[in-house]
Q: What sequence folds into this?
């Protein structure tokens, strides 16, 4: 009874090891991302971040940082002054939203349609991960088929045909009537005297 319990425990551990390794990789990845994603709060870094977050008011598809329009240059010059005056990033963004509407924001807001813009990709990732977990569980629970005697005969005949009749040691079949090379009764060629 202990042997069966030990086998089950070993099988359970073997199944858990890949999942634990995956959890460890994910945890390390999250820690690395959290540490590396801390924003630099120097005035220059804040200004650069805000320039990327604001869209050019007269251009299509360009941020204030990427555009050379007079309006974008004016905003780039204004942002450091507002930072030096003590305004927060949210205050600066709100000022430009009040002046140009929400279309000046490169990133969607956290309300209204912005929730859909943020939520759909996250939902897609979660559903994809769940689909992978379900598929892996189904595959691991699928019964493993055993080769029948008929299957083994088909393979043996196919090997004999392709190898010109050479016999492989692992082809021994109890019903094939051929002597097994490893049996003590089998005599090596040229050894007629026996043991």
A:
């Amino acid at each position: 009874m202990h042997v069966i319990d030990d086998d089950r425990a070993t099988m359970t551990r073997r199944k858990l090891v890949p999942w634990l390794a995956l959890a460890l990789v994910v945890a390390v990845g999250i820690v690395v991302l959290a540490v590396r994603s801390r924003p630099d709060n120097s005035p220059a870094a804040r200004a650069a971040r805000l320039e990327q977050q604001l869209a050019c008011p007269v251009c299509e598809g360009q941020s204030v940082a990427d555009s050379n329009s007079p309006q974008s240059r004016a905003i780039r010059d204004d942002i450091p002054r507002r930072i030096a005056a003590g305004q927060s990033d949210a205050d600066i963004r709100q000022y430009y939203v009040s002046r140009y509407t929400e279309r000046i924001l490169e990133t969607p807001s956290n309300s209204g349609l912005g929730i859909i813009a943020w939520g759909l990709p996250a939902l897609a990732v979660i559903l994809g991960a769940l689909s992978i977990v379900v598929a892996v569980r189904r595959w691991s629970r699928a019964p493993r088929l055993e080769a029948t005697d008929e299957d083994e005969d088909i393979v043996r005949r196919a090997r004999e045909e392709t190898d010109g009749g050479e016999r492989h040691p692992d082809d021994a079949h109890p019903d094939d009537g051929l002597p097994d090379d490893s049996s003590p009764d089998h005599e090596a060629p040229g050894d007629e005297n026996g043991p």
About this structure: The first helix runs from residue 2 to 36. The two ends are 44 Å apart (CA to CA). Residues 43-104 form a domain with the Helicase, Ruva Protein; domain 3 fold (CATH 1.10.8.640). The mean pLDDT is 80.
